[in-house]
Design goal:
The chain is of the alpha+beta class. The chain has one domain: Lipoprotein localisation LolA/LolB/LppX (outer membrane lipoprotein receptor (LolB), chain A, Clam), CATH 2.50.20. It is 21% helix and 46% strand. The chain is built from five helices and 15 strands. Strands 6-5-4-3-2-1-15-14-13-12-11-10-9 form a 13-stranded antiparallel sheet, with helices on both faces. 31% of the residues are buried.
Length: 249
């Protein structure tokens, strides 16, 4: 009896510890949400984004944007430079994305997945919300440059998202984004994103640099640098086609 009782107590203790560990481990969805909140605020905000696109044997291409965002489904992306593209404005509202061009009277609808410049897709600037667009599952744990990371698989939860599938490395404990691999519908790796240079931005330590590296063309990459992030209330009228038409005129 003592032996059986001891074994039973050991089994109960083991099950209890396993339950506690499972309760402490965040879900895949919670991890992605936490990483989203580190990259950008939940509140309305504006941020400046400078993009440098590099192609071997060519001069770097430089673009400058201002992004206004409210929640995860409303944003305005204004092109400030180069001068040849200045005045272009993208509007995201819900699943729909339009671009307003200075020489065109009506806005043109665009897919989020379409390339904006270099390795940057429209959705990389207009919609930075993994949690709202993808279903997340835990794949494994892996060390990435000395940091323990949870590796998550993100699959599109609706039509029209920027990428069909993403593998996402998030640092354990801090929930800081570390790396992302972006795949096509046919499961081909398109590009890899590396998050770096964590600094205080908008009242919180965030990655201020995202490097997007082409998976097929050696040496081609785009570097996005974020600065001047300000949390602010943005009137809902800003995220309407009528307002942006008046602004353009």
């Amino acid at each position: 009896m003592p032996i059986r009782r001891s074994a039973a107590l050991f089994l109960i203790s083991l099950l209890a510890n396993t339950t506690v560990m499972a309760a402490e481990a965040p879900s895949a969805e919670d991890t992605v949400t936490a990483a989203d909140q580190i990259r950008f605020p939940d509140e309305g905000f504006q941020v400046s984004v400078n993009v440098t696109s590099l192609v071997p044997n060519r001069d770097p291409e430089l673009h400058e944007y201002q992004v206004l965002q409210s929640g995860h489904d409303k944003s305005v992306v204004r092109t400030l430079a180069p001068a040849s593209e200045a005045g272009q404005v993208m509007l995201l509202r819900g699943p729909d994305l339009w671009v307003f061009l200075p020489e065109v009277s009506q806005p043109v609808r665009l897919p989020l997945s379409q390339r904006l410049t270099g390795q940057v897709a429209n959705g990389d600037l207009a919609r930075a919300n993994f949690a709202g667009d993808y279903a997340a599952t835990f794949v494994k744990e892996e060390n990435m440059e000395g940091r323990k990371c949870r590796v998550l698989e993100l699959t599109a939860a609706r039509k029209g998202v920027t990428y069909h599938r993403v593998l996402y490395w998030v640092e354990k404990g801090t929930n800081r984004p570390v790396k992302a691999e972006f795949y096509t519908l046919s499961k081909r790796l398109m590009k890899t994103g590396l998050y770096s240079e964590f600094k205080e931005l908008g009242g919180k330590v965030r990655p201020t640099k995202l490097t997007l590296i082409d998976a097929l063309k050696s040496g081609e990459q785009s570097v996005l640098v974020y600065s001047s992030l300000k949390v602010r209330d943005i009137p809902d009228k800003v995220f309407t086609k009528d307002f942006l038409r008046k602004l353009k005129n």
